[in-house]
Write a structure and sequence with these properties.
The complex is a heterodimer of chains A (about 110) and B (about 110). Chain A has about 110 residues and is mainly beta. Chain A contains no helices and 10 strands. Classes of the chains: A mainly beta (about 110), B mainly beta (about 110).
Chain lengths: ~110, ~110
């Protein structure tokens, strides 16, 4: 497909488990962002990747959160020892570069029981 | 601390009339602003952007106005159509920054 693809679309897991969320950006897009949206809130920036540069991790809320981007393409966001407050929609976006508008995936809805 | 604010959670407009969505920001270093539209269960879709060197940008039925002195931007949709019914987010970024700050969104309903 031509758009940003995220998987899974929904994830339900027990508190304390680890989860991995995947993002396939648009081919050729060098910039990749992760956001989360909690109920009734705006999008909260988590992390930004640009090409092969070191990522901007300034938005990660705790050391339980980490992300990587392999080969400048696919990215995974990992949340360890999940807590109920981690329940949110996690959105990935990519753009040609940081000065171009972002294209979003449809998100992963994460529910922690 | 919310640096981008959309103070109206919802707005209803008659089809054919103008919709005006507002956004305020607090950081004078913001120089790039965008509007996104979001349908339920989908990711946001880019609508229109404006940089701080301009005060207006137009694309078809959508126009964004930027008032830097008031730290305020607005999105005008004219004429409004039922398909415009969605949640609209404004976003802003500072010069040299990577992080985009989003508002909490305004839900627009266009009544046929």
């Amino acid at each position: 497909g031509a758009g940003v693809s995220q998987s899974p679309s929904n994830k339900v897991t027990e508190k304390g488990k680890d989860v991995e969320l995947r993002c396939d950006p648009i081919s050729g897009h060098t910039a990749l962002y992760w956001y989360r949206q909690s109920l009734g809130q705006g999008l909260e920036f988590l992390i930004y990747f640009q090409g092969n540069s070191a990522p901007d991790k300034s938005g990660l809320p705790s050391d339980r959160f980490s992300a990587e981007r392999t080969g400048g393409s696919v990215s995974t966001l990992t949340i360890q020892r999940t807590q109920q407050e981690d329940s949110a929609v996690y959105l990935c976006a990519s753009s040609r570069d940081r000065n171009q508008p972002q294209h979003f995936g449809d998100g992963t809805r994460l529910s922690i029981l | 601390d919310q640096q981008v604010k959309q103070n109206s959670p919802s707005l209803s407009v008659q089809e054919g009339r103008i919709s005006i969505l507002n956004c305020d920001y607090t950081n004078s270093m913001f120089d790039y602003f965008l509007w996104y539209k979001k349908y339920p269960a989908e990711g946001p879709t880019f609508l229109i952007s404006i940089s701080s060197i301009k005060d207006k940008n137009e694309d078809g039925r959508f126009t964004v106005f930027l008032n830097k002195s008031a730290k305020h931007l607005s999105l005008h949709i004219v004429p409004s159509q039922p398909g415009d019914s969605a949640v609209y987010f404004c976003a802003a970024r500072g010069s040299g920054g990577n992080q985009f700050y989003f508002g909490t969104g305004t839900s627009l309903t266009v009544i046929p």
